[in-house]
Amino acid sequence: MIDSIMKRLGVSHDLYRNGNYTVRTPIDGSVIGQVSLEGAEAVDERIAKAQQAFEAWRKVPAPRRGELVRLFAQQLRDHKEDLGQLVTWECGKILQEGLGEVQEMIDICDLAVGQSRQLFGLTIASERPGHHMRESWHPLGPIGLITAFNFPVAPWAWNAALALVCGNSLLWKPSEKTPLCALACQALLERAMEEFGDDAPKDLSQVILGDRDAGERLVDDPRIPLISATGSTRMGREVAPRVAARFGRSILELGGNNAMILAPSADLDMAVRAILFSAVGTAGQRCTTLRRLIVHESIRDEVVDRLKKAYANISIGDPREGYLVGPLIDSQAYEQMQSALERARQQGAKIVGGERQLAESYPDGYYVSPAIVEVEQQDELVRHETFAPILYVMGYRDFDDALAMNNDVPQGLSSCVFTTDVREAETFVSAVGSDCGIANVNIGPSGAEIGGAFGGEKETGGGRESGSDVWKSYMRRQTNTVNYSRELPLAQGIKFD
Ligand code: NAD
Predict the structure, then answer these.
(1) Is residue 340 over pLDDT 90?
(2) 298: part of which helix (H) or strand (E)?
(3) Cβ(446)–Cβ(429) under 8 Å?
(4) 460 vs 453: CA distance, rounded Å
């Protein structure tokens, strides 16, 4: 099965069947590939090639660069099913979510194609006669992309589509847990490059298969002006100072600890559906997964009751076969979930779910029933991101207290309120409301569209990817002053003669 998917996606057999590093599917732990991890020398050579490719690509007019991204989007449309299936095989999310990820890639490509004709600068009024000023945006250089296992294709595309139209070359270090997805995306982009013609330099996009050492090489190399890194806060804490030490730029997309405030006026049917999708979807392994439910005391019992009933009906199983929840990525993720639940139990929390499922059928697949954990207060355990389907439920009486709880965690990615009270809704998205990069009203915290900027504050890293004016992060800004007069007046009226 994997062989036929990889063949249709254009990945040569040698690239994923002959290496020294074993790739397993989280579905049942079976081997789906053998890839070769690259050492220091190979990474160094790739960076040099990326620099050469950048020097050629930056000369290609931006709308023409957009044409390459348009062709890539067509490849993605033609192979949406195959790539979606590969995402399911390699990271274990259900096929609907795998297909959703590929659709996000297509959407960002479409946005980037339009953007390629809109890399707008400014004209600025000069204080000096016979002068004009303007602001221009120029390509930046080779861009280093480091990505996480749980979204093995879309975040790369958010960066890659914009970085390409902005005139940059790409070096991608995917998660060591999902190298096949990276090889497939690269193969589709190479097909688009072939169709595009000679304007696209050969090494415009490269994949570096490796572990964190390979990531660290990119992070430390001054030839790479921008590192865009998606992953845990631990990773970001290591990457940020190293990039800063060489005055590089970084876009950091790190951990989240996302909350919903559920007010008494809310439409509870909608809220329960939103909770289910955002707390349980992708087996709780989304950066935007709902992890904290802050519910008004007057409706707490009813909501918990409805959630327990809904959770009892969740189908758990092989993500290729139409179940709603697939496996955790590996045994380590399972152990981390169990250790968080054990701590909660010791602290007196009421817990439903969290048990291992299907262990007999899949001894090497880590399926769990999503857990609802009722706690009295937001302590250190709740403040920590456990990357698994655990929903902590806490009560509130006063909206301001709920807002304070929403904000009282180290992370600042996504948040939402369910209410029909306009004062509560507007307060939540105001300057004194949620402190997160994403704040929603009457929709859950996960499942963002690509049109907006995506990212979060505090320990989520402060980076933004995807839509809005994010393209500017992949370019360098230049201020130009042009004197078309025969005089040389100085700014601020300074006389120097
Ligand atoms: P991880 O931090 O273990 O690994 C992410 C990537 O960083 C991998 O490619 C890894 O090899 C690399 N890496 C690790 N240490 C490094 C270092 N010191 N230098 C350079 N590279 C290094 O994360 P994961 O387990 O793959 O993903 C789950 C985490 O990612 C969760 O915390 C989740 O919230 C977060 N995430 C965030 C977003 C977002 O947009 N904010 C999106 C997806 C995932």
Answers:
(1) yes
(2) helix 297-312
(3) no
(4) 14
Ligand 1 site, residue 243, Cβ cutoff 6 A: no
* 3-state DSSP assignment of residue 480: strand
- At 406-422, the pLDDT tens digits run 999 999 999 999 999 99
Choose the residue to mutate in 146, 208, 238 for probing ligand 1, maximizing ligand atoms within 8 Å of C-beta: 146
Torsion angle of C-alpha atoms 91, 97, 98, 104, degrees rounded to 10: -120
CA gap 484, 481 in Å, rounded: 10
Q: At what angle do helices 179-196 and 62-78 cross, to 10 degrees?
A: 120
DSSP string, 224-283: --EEEEES-HHHHHHHHHHHHHTT-EEEEE----EEEEE-TTS-HHHHHHHHHHHHHGGG
* Ligand 1 atom with the shortest distance to the CA of 151: 43
How far from 219 is each of 179, 199, 425, CA to CA, in Å?
19, 29, 41
Dihedral in degrees, nearest 10, Cα atoms 267, 293, 460, 477: 10
Q: Cα(184)–Cα(289) distance, rounded to whole angstroms?
A: 26
pLDDT confidence tier of residue 281, bands split at 50, 70 and 90: very high
Amino acid at 309: K
Catalytic annotation, residues: 253
- Residue 49 CA from chain centroid, whole number: 26
What would the pLDDT profile of 116-172 be if each residue is shown by its tens digit? 999 999 999 999 999 999 999 999 999 999 999 999 999 999 999 999 999 999 999
Q: What is the pLDDT of residues 179-206, one digit of tens each?
A: 999 999 999 999 999 999 999 999 999 9
The two tokens of residue 184 are 């497939």
Atom number, ligand 1, closest to the C-alpha of residue 234: 2
Half-sphere exposure of 329 (CA within 13 A, CB side): 22
As to burial, measured by CB atoms within 10 angstroms (0-12 exposed, 13-18 middle, 19+ buried), residue 14 is exposed
333-to-155, 283, 392 alpha-carbon distances in Å: 21, 11, 18
Q: What is the mean pLDDT of residues 14-28?
A: 96
Ligand 1 touching residue 101 (CB < 6 A): no
The label of the residue with tokens 């865009």 reads: 228
Our answer on whether the CB atom of 463 is closer than 6 Å to any ligand 1 atom is no
Please say if the pLDDT value at position 225 is more than 90: yes
ipTM of the complex: 0.98
Q: Is 172 in contact with 156 (CB distance < 8 Å)?
A: yes
335 lines ligand 1 (CB under 6 A): no
Rounded Cα gap, residues 458 and 410, in angstroms: 6
Give the residue, by CA position, lying nearest to ligand 1 atom 22: 212
Q: Which atom of ligand 1 is nearest to the CA of 253?
A: 41
Tell me which residue has tokens 């280093």: 144
Ligand 1 near 150 CB (within 6 A): yes
Token couple for 128: 């000096």
